[in-house]
Amino acid sequence: MNLHVPALGPEADPVRTTCPYCGVGCGVLARPDGQGGASVAGDPAHPANHGRLCSKGSTLGETLSLDDRVLHPAIAGRRVGWDEALDAVADGLRRTAEAHGPESVAFYLSGQLLTEDYYVANKLAKGFIGTPHVDTNSRLCMSSAVAAHRRAFGSDTVPGCYEDLDEADLLVLVGSNTAWCHPILFRRMLDARTKRGTKIVVIDPRRTQTGEEADLFLGLRPGTDTALFSGLLVHLSDHGALDARYIADHTAGFEPALERARQIAPDAAATARATGLGEAEVGTFFALFRATPRVVTAFSQGVNQSAQGTDKANAIINCHLATGRIGTPGTGPFSLTGQPNAMGGREVGGLANMLAAHMHFAPEEVDLVRRFWSAPRIITGEGLKAVPLFEAIERGKIKALWVMGTNPAVSMPRADRVRAALGRLDTFVVSEVAAGTDTVRARNAIVLPALAWGEKDGTVTNSERRITRQRTFLKAPGEARADWWILAQVGRRLGHAKQFAWPTVAAVFREHAALSEFENRGSRDFDIGGLADLSDAAYEAAAPVQWPLTRKAKAGERRLFASGGFYTRDRRARFVAVQKPALADATSDAFPLRLNTGRVRDHWHTLTRTGKSPRLSAHRAVPFVEIHPDDAARAGVADGDLARVRTPHGAAVLEVTVTPGAQAGMLFAPMHWSEANTSDGRVGALAQGAADPVSGQPELKATPASLTPEPYRSRGYLITRAAVPAPHGWWWARAIVEGGSGLIFASQEGAAEAALLMRELFPEAAFSEYADPARGVYRGAAFRDGRLLGALALAPAAERPSWEAAKAFFRTQELLEPPARRALISGRAESAGSGPLVCACHTVGLDVIRGAVADGARSVEAVGAACKAGTNCGSCIPEIRELLAAALAPSPA
Amino acid sequence: MTERLVVIGNGMASLRFLERLTERASGRFDVTCVGAEPVAAYNRVLLSSLLGGEVDEAACTFRGLDWYAAHGITLVTGAPVTVVDPGARIVQVGEGLVLPFERLVLAVGSVPIRLPKPGMDLPGVITFRDLADVAAIRKAAVAGARAVVIGGGLLGLEAAVGLRRLGVDTTLLHVMDRLMERQLDHAAAGLVRDAMEARGVRVRLRADTEAVEGEGRVERLRLTDGTVLPADLVVMSVGVRPSTALAAAAGLEVGRGIRVDDRLETSVPGIHALGECAEHRGVTYGLVEPAYEQAEILARHLCGEDAAYAGTTLSTSLKVSGLPVFSAGLVDVPEGAEAVTWSDPAAGLYRKLVIGDDRLVGAVFVGDVGEQGWCKTLIRTGDALAPGDRDDLMFGRAPPRPGAAHPLAA
């Protein structure tokens, strides 16, 4: 088996590094286990998490296998050496640029890249190839926040820090399922509630687990956030809650913004009408905000992924500027970023509407960067943002594309069109870690093996502007190389040996830092001149630090803007007169519902990493769609049924979850599943591409949609030791299980076909089989020499056989004794099963928690003491609380 | 005045009847029991174990002669009844003894069938029915001997395993395409065959015997396909025929067996028949369980209780060389019925439920016969299956869901 080689001995100290998932940027202590994996723990010394990790971070050790890794360069599926691959990339880019102009070349980067990788890619494209078309998956993530920051502050600056979450008395979470998507920050928020009675308000069309925990949940209609915060601004103004001095000294544009707000939502009643909320709850929220000086408004994709995302964010920022609640402890608007290094990408300028180092396209900025880089082909204006960039590929305007560390064939809106467009490219380069992604498979690409987390070395920046090292603790497998190295090699081959000559990653970082302070003199927020002279050794040892950190500063700035000092020409912040909210597309008879998309607790992006962890794959194993009970009844679907969700852009077949947490008229589907792990669950294909006019961020969360039942005769599961292709005609989703690979499926077949399939899959095996053909039930297990090879269960669709019990038998490679063989086939656990997974960190199932409650546990803490559930990352605490509430509720008479 | 009751036959059915009768009505009848074998009733079921040397003869005995005496039963052994005269209400035993009766019970059992093929009367061709047969087989089964057992029914299998246990090179022949075809379907029979072969018994199916050959005693057996099997011993176990000669000679109505009604009374009032010799509602039984049921019914009837026999659900529960096998009701799935199966041949496990109109009509279990009692009840009562019954019949009733007692919660 193909295993990692640890980069250090077992006796060495653990390596301090950073979690590669969300933008919280938790510190991780990693220690290789010598068997290809590593044990991970939260770094108690890291200021983001103080030793805590969420379920995803805790299971990083399970994601390190080299299965499904790209380990050597390949051209159109043919293995080649690095020289041939790099020559092919350089030739492809050069020929395309020469024949069609440099603007026929594009880069699509990722918030997963390290800052140094980002820096080199940006430099190569914008200074040396001469194309402005460098965009990134951050466009789908927080570009509306970036745009709002720039409109309001003159710079892309997050004004506060995580300590503000600890020190606020009111936390307003807008469009953010923080409990699932930023669990460690959510723990800090809950701690603040315990410690100082902080109130939590959650604003979301969907009653998420975060909403369940809120003191006040405002389930507004989708896309109406701007109306709510406009109403709030009016309310603050009308109730004397403005900070007139701050407005006067440090801002501009208040009056027009207020006037516009008044047009949109003149009072609480109008706000209620515009948002679909009750007037009383609107009033409660307004009063709470008005009366609480220490308020942080944290926002995520619910704000950003919108055709009015920039306005939404500015409506929020307006309220903070108007009350002067910014830059002081416990206050501020706070963009919670989705990716580990979206911020780093922004810092180097790795977006189509930036040049470099928080500089844009003012002539003096272009000249500055040109001189700093000695760039022969510096660009002078913005390039295409993600959605139009892929449209340009579709139209044949862009003919060469280099994708690094992202999976646009899954994650882009209208993903089916994007996937098809990739086939039109003359030169398609993919720097990747995962071999089976839809993007890699979309065409015969030049595939370059990149380093993964644990192998690569560099820096990332989290949501609070904190730069932290990601460090190597595993040796590079196969021929994988650092992204910055790959890019530099191509730069040299394009004739720029001198400008791409870094000997180490630290040298790249120093150049990046030097650019940030080059002729800056306080004109730009992003200045890390204090790090520009770091020696290699100091870089290696560098502790987490916040920017700005100028050459003269002793420490980084925790907060900005308490006393103004914005990065506009007049140093004043700008209020923004926002537009009346309207979603990009209206519903219709054909598409009467709205599809919201998002993440689940234990998965990340397109499953290339979390999909390797059995624990993370247990919480939600199939792509699903949430629907309100009334809509479900109207559509004729029940919980657990399969349904076809259609939009004008695509269709997917998803398992129905009926929940009152869904707003009537709204659907929610997670965006994680791809062609690699489901037959029909590519939700990205359904989302519309309508983008925010300012940020270019597409409206991924409100696509008009329809839902119809998708009946199948049978449902079942197939677990095998190694992954097998799903038979034609099945609906399926793949999930890793301990000791095997699982398919949850639906099919039009019955027991006889299932028995035949087992014989095809395991031609030499001995079988144990239960068959009730008349009822359409089959359960079979294949053995060789008494060792379990695979198990298949099939039953009428309404019965949906659960694989919880069967999964347990794959944990061991040992012989299964007769009672175990019987238990496996009986569909019953040999001993008590623990039920569907709730706590991923400690692998505690529903039944165990119910048992603890039955034994007298009356609180989340008592449940934790009894069975450990919820005691690590805490992201399952809302679920535990629901179980407690259900168990302890007086039964109806 | 006590009625004179004569029981002809002293097998297992006869003894069970005598036990039940004397429990209920000690002294009501003047009982004489006449047995053809030289010893009192013994456990015929254990004959194969006795053959294999797993048990000794003592283990096969049921009741000592003192028991008969203590219960006022006159026991005559080693004496065949030669004549029954219903008109005169007497039976004649051997040449001289005449026993008058008011009530007569025929429990004369069955006789093993010998194939009507050449050579079946050669010395060394032995049936497998009683203690004398066992003795004869054991005598012939010297080390290095080669035995052929004809007949893949229950008794044949047991004989073959017993022989193998004695160290005899043993081949089992069966004319059908599976063993125990009346009780087992192909899958179950396959498992039984595997178990036989695991014990060292060679099994040949579709083996039709043409002749047994030898000079003065058995030397070989020839199959219709021309195969010749050397043999020092041939054990014939191709079935039994109810003993009806005596009854027929007495003018009792006889079909395949001696015909009886639900009170186990023959066509002649006061004369009853039970066990393997009896034919009830057109069915004769070759197993001990129906015989015991009949014995119980007849004893109660003769004691004046209102007891009637409605037939026994055909079921078999046995061990083939340690492999438990159970079969009840229908083995093959009739039109319109359905089968539910669980098969784990490597673990020696097989279960089939035959279900018609949502009622259990048959069951075949191999390897684990845990739910056999429940199956028999369901087949007999014809109760509709409850939801979950199928799984419970197949895998046993699920243990109660753990709640408070979960180890992690403790």
UniProtKB/TrEMBL annotation, chain A:
Residues 12-68 form the 4Fe-4S Mo/W bis-MGD-type domain. This is Nitrate reductase. Pfam families: Fer2_BFD, Molybdop_Fe4S4, Molybdopterin, Molydop_binding. Belongs to the prokaryotic molybdopterin-containing oxidoreductase family. NasA/NapA/NarB subfamily. Gene3D superfamilies: 2.40.40.20, 3.40.50.740, ADC-like domains, BFD-like [2Fe-2S]-binding domain, Dimethylsulfoxide Reductase, domain 2. InterPro entries: Asp_de-COase-like_dom_sf, BFD-like_2Fe2S-bd_dom, BFD-like_2Fe2S-bd_dom_sf, CT_Nitrate-R-NapA-like, MoPterin_dinucl-bd_dom, Mopterin_OxRdtase, Mopterin_OxRdtase_4Fe-4S_dom, MopterinOxRdtase_cofactor_BS. The keyword Lipoprotein does not apply. Its cofactor is [4Fe-4S] cluster; Mo-bis(molybdopterin guanine dinucleotide). Keywords: 4Fe-4S, Iron, Iron-sulfur, Metal-binding, Molybdenum, Nitrate assimilation, Oxidoreductase.
UniProtKB/TrEMBL annotation, chain B:
Its cofactor is FAD. Residues 4-294 form the FAD/NAD(P)-binding domain. Residues 315-381 form the NADH-rubredoxin oxidoreductase C-terminal domain. It comes from Methylobacterium crusticola. Keywords: FAD, Flavoprotein. Belongs to the FAD-dependent oxidoreductase family. The keyword Transmembrane helix does not apply. This is Nitrite reductase [NAD(P)H]. Pfam families: Pyr_redox_2 (PF07992), Rubredoxin_C (PF18267). The keyword Flavoprotein applies.
